[in-house]
Design goal:
alpha/beta, TIM Barrel, 12 helices, globular
Length: 294
């Protein structure tokens, strides 16, 4: 295991929708340009913020291809290829690789409870099908599957191209254990916004965040201060962002980020049902928070 080139602020993208409900690929490109121009270090389309689970296969493919095209090699692109079935995840992973993605992200998800052996096999089949690195994603709140540190390390040992981990349980001790048990050789990324400051202290090499759609410069400033060992600066930066980080997490990432983008002059449409747009009270509160953060 070696330190991977992907580091820093890994920005989740939203999937904009036009008035007719179809993906708005032009708005997607604009949102990506905004974040890259602001200095984010990588782009991650089609995760939970990108409503990947709510897209048809044709829509997913169109968004994945346009995302990679829009990034145009300026920063790494990590495409989420997660699906309920191994076959569909493999299909998406192959497409993402063909489009030019630098890596794929895989969240194990299943209607049925999976054994450790079944989870390992899921990653093995995906890994055997592609040549790009895999970011293992652990987020039991949305997948229903909690990957223990023991199981994560078994997967890393079993699948050569599982080379990094996104940890989103909200338990910083998982990150400490990942660092200690691999002697810092396994790159891991924070996926829990309220843990950003603690995660960098635990050894996270990056922060996967939807907040970069709204406050990319502040996210980058926190990363730079933490990486540079400027603890007071990092702490002050984190606390200034925390109200927004808490709000978007508790309010639901697609609806809050889309509402925020609308407020900043980039209309991206409503989330796809059953998710509903942020209500009037939520929009008022978000506007207050954004004004204070900026």
């Amino acid at each position: 295991m070696t330190q991977h080139a992907i580091h820093g602020i890994v920005a989740y993208t939203i999937t904009p929708f036009a008035a007719d409900g179809t993906p708005d690929l032009d708005a997607l490109g604009k949102s990506i340009d905004r974040m890259i121009d602001a200095g984010v270090h990588a782009i991650a389309p089609l995760g939970s913020t990108g409503e990947g689970a709510y897209l048809s296969q044709d829509e997913w493919s169109a968004v994945a291809e346009r995302s990679v095209q829009a990034v145009a090699g300026r920063v790494p692109t990590v495409v989420s290829v997660s699906d309920l079935t191994t076959a569909n995840a493999v299909s998406r992973a192959k497409q993402a690789e063909a489009f030019g993605a630098d890596a794929v992200m895989v969240l194990p998800a299943s209607y049925w409870k999976l054994s450790d052996a079944e989870i390992i096999a899921h990653y093995q089949v995906i890994g055997d099908a592609i040549g790009v690195p895999i970011m293992l994603y652990n987020n039991p709140a949305v997948s229903g599957i909690d990957l223990s540190v023991d199981l994560i390390l078994k997967i890393v040992d079993a699948v050569d191209n599982v080379t990094m981990v996104k940890e989103s349980t909200g338990d910083v001790q998982r990150m400490h254990q990942l660092y200690l048990r691999t002697e810092g050789r396994l790159p891991f990324y924070n996926g829990s916004n309220p843990l950003a400051l603690e995660a960098f202290g635990a050894g996270a090499v990056g922060w996967c965040t939807a907040a970069a759609n709204l406050i990319p410069q502040q996210n980058i400033a926190l990363y730079d201060a933490a990486r540079g060992g400027r603890l007071t600066e990092a702490r002050d930066s984190f606390y200034a962002q925390l109200p927004l980080l808490d709000f978007i997490l508790k309010g639901g990432l697609p609806k809050t980020i889309k509402a925020g983008l609308d407020m900043t002059g980039l209309p991206v449409g409503a989330p796809r049902a059953p998710v509903q747009p942020l209500d009037a009270a939520g929009c008022a509160r978000l506007a207050e928070i954004l004004a204070a953060v900026h």
